[in-house]
Amino acid sequence: MIHKVVANADEAIRDISNGMTLMLGGFGLCGIPENCINALVKKGVNQLTCISNNAGVDDFGIGLMLQNRQVKKMISSYVGENAEFERQLLSGELEVELVPQGTLATRCMAAGYGMPAIFTPAGVGTEVAIGKEIRNFNGKDYLMEKAFDADFAIVKAWKGDSAGNLIYRSTARNFNPVMAMAGKITIAEVEHLVEVGELDPDQIHTPGIYVHRIFQGQDYQKRIEQRTVRSI
Amino acid sequence: MIHKVVANADEAIRDISNGMTLMLGGFGLCGIPENCINALVKKGVNQLTCISNNAGVDDFGIGLMLQNRQVKKMISSYVGENAEFERQLLSGELEVELVPQGTLATRCMAAGYGMPAIFTPAGVGTEVAIGKEIRNFNGKDYLMEKAFDADFAIVKAWKGDSAGNLIYRSTARNFNPVMAMAGKITIAEVEHLVEVGELDPDQIHTPGIYVHRIFQGQDYQKRIEQRTVRSI
Amino acid sequence: MLDKIGIAKRIAQEIKNNYYVNLGIGIPTLVANYIPEGINVVLQSENGLLGMGPFPIDGEEDPDLINAGKQTITTLPGSSIFDSAMSFGMIRSQKVDLTILGAMEVSENGDIANWKIPGKMVKGMGGAMDLVASAKNIIVAMQHVNKAGESKLLPECSLPLTGVKCVKKIVTELAVLEIASEGGFRLLERAPGVTIDEIKKATAGKLIIEGEIPEMKI
Amino acid sequence: MLDKIGIAKRIAQEIKNNYYVNLGIGIPTLVANYIPEGINVVLQSENGLLGMGPFPIDGEEDPDLINAGKQTITTLPGSSIFDSAMSFGMIRSQKVDLTILGAMEVSENGDIANWKIPGKMVKGMGGAMDLVASAKNIIVAMQHVNKAGESKLLPECSLPLTGVKCVKKIVTELAVLEIASEGGFRLLERAPGVTIDEIKKATAGKLIIEGEIPEMKI
Hints:
- The complex is a heterotetramer, with 2 copies of chain A (232 residues) and 2 copies of chain C (218 residues).
- Chain A is of the alpha/beta class and 232 residues long.
- Chain A has one domain: Glutaconate Coenzyme A-transferase, CATH 3.40.1080.
- Chain A has 6 helices and 11 strands.
- Chain A has helices at residues 9-12, 34-43, 62-67, 83-90, 101-112, 176-180; strands spanning 21-24, 48-51, 71-76, 95-98, 117-120, 134-137, 140-146, 150-161, 166-167, 183-194, 213-216.
- Chain A is globular, with a radius of gyration of 18 Å.
- Chain C is of the alpha/beta class.
- Chain C has one domain (4-208): Glutaconate Coenzyme A-transferase (3-Layer(aba) Sandwich), CATH 3.40.1080.
- Helices cover 17% and strands 24% of the residues of chain C.
- A 10-stranded mixed sheet of chain C has the order 4-3-2-1-5-8-10-11-12-13, with helices on both faces.
- Chain C starts with a helix and ends in a 10-residue tail after the last strand.
- Chains in contact: A-B, A-C, A-D, B-C, B-D.
- The interface between B and D is large, with 57 and 54 residues.
């Protein structure tokens, strides 16, 4: 087996440099690579293009990178939880490309599956379609959307082994598997790093071939954005 | 939960009729829907188009349907284990469309993912490309290949629950998950049918939404095509 | 006139046995509470869950288990988890029977706008564009008029579109309407105590009224 | 002159540490037995397995666990299983470092034919077309001449192609050759005891011989 373990987030992101394109897994604050985001903030690398379904909140997740003015451009589907984001966007400091959520996921998958483009009906007839090729199949119009091209994909998993195999937990899976496949270099942080042989091959969500660096994450906050409970 | 259980293979295939297009899971004889194939042979339905990576062997798997002259056309990637197949093909009794294995899998996935076509470099410059649109992305040529359109997909899983959720075992997974997503109606036969709640939601390979009928299979032979062992 | 719960209750009547349903944020989320007895329904949450259960009881929230509105939720026996690509794969391939979502505007040919107010609001479309582009059946849950008192049922949408010619039915505090195939809002039911004139006044797009219009049964 | 095992041993020297490798049926399968000590390599089997282990011991065959040649195999610690779409996804996205496969013919510009003999053999291409269209590095393992004594290294392939301009290197019983970027088979090594004249005689395509040609070290 090929050994992928690095010591920590700082080592994992050591060669991420200004101007690069990063994919960051997670949906809202669920399943986000907390350790790597903190390390990126500490490192201060900037002019980044970030592909992530959301942009965190003001004081957590990608929101921390926005506060720190490290992000040149966000490619996301929904960014509505972040006042600083909205300020930078309306002031023109931040470029934003809004992408339908399924298109975002599928453009990641396309990269990981070696497919240069995909067809989707999402956005036909809307401003998302502007400048894009439209194609009719069986009487229905589809947009041609290109695979993403990211220097690094950074994902968070529940368990991982030293060969880079990953298992996610519950809806913290979300964008993590499709982004893990899509980076030129993929970094995985995990809550539980185990030895090879401890994970059942049938249960692995991301095969190790897609993962270049893996490390045991520390001090996960796993914040809840909308704590909602029922009365019994 | 929506209840998908039927009594047996005969009930599951009750409305498969002459001239239909079927997808059949499996790779070689590994992970094939043995019960449904036997029921199709018994029913005698014919003029079928079968999409399956392989065509079985003379006396097992899809080979039984070929012996019985039920197949009008095979769409496969590799058919080299079947003398009756070769005879019918060379005599012109059987139409055959040979498709690169990755293209076959991805055309199934495209159907299940609502993508009308995909791009792949497989077959560029070969006779597989004849009549197909070629498109250059980033300096490389790709063929546009269409999603399959199948009346029924018939798959075999290891475990399944009454809501149609499926878990495959080892390399018997192969084409089964991508075909399960692709049928207008999907039939799953399983070695172990369990109640809802017994399968871990994180470990389900095929979510029940893709499966319309499920039943507990009987008398699995699980033949080995190439028994290969090592001396200790 | 209906309140939000009334709208949710009326929409719940549209859910048929053995449906897979995607519920948007807001009123649509409330629909889950009013699904009739004996109706089997599986809720899909586009962040990657089939078989969404109720909110957890206090103290059992799991930060790894949320719905598309980022609310803590639970699973049910028979639930399954999957990634975002598969989630929208099943949406695009029309395995989801019914999508219920909110809107800022609906046009008389079934266009919907619900993701952007130029210069003012830039939250993004999330999964809405994928859902409306693919769903077999789309019901919009919304108020008939906006806070300024202007109709949200228009000849044409003024806001950037989410999708075109896709809405099938609209349930508001005043009425149930369907988009006629030839264009126009066909009035199907009045909310309790609401007159046809009130509905006419609140509808800027072409309103089609044929025969007796019954009052909703909630 | 090498036997099949010799060819497999020579090819095994091409495998670098931390490679993911896909081995075709026949001689390529044998390569797994001769990977040098200290070289970490993970074998991919395109039916859906990373981390292919050796054949099982007698009595431990599992019908659910086979390789792309339908042989019973085993997994190793760190193995993973996936479906056919993901398997070819990782092949197309060039996550597999090296593909080793057999051929009926190779042309001097790197075209390969290995799936069909019109009117005679119709077994199909299996995964070969996907592999050759995408792999970063393709090594062909084959006999230098066919059973009729005709060269399989040709100016142009006569059989239906599997892929174009994709082969990087060829290892036969006589020689190691690479496809020159300007076209032609550049002779890199002779098999033990084989003369340059023997290689010339067996090579119908353009053979490029520059400087001393060393003998292989097996």
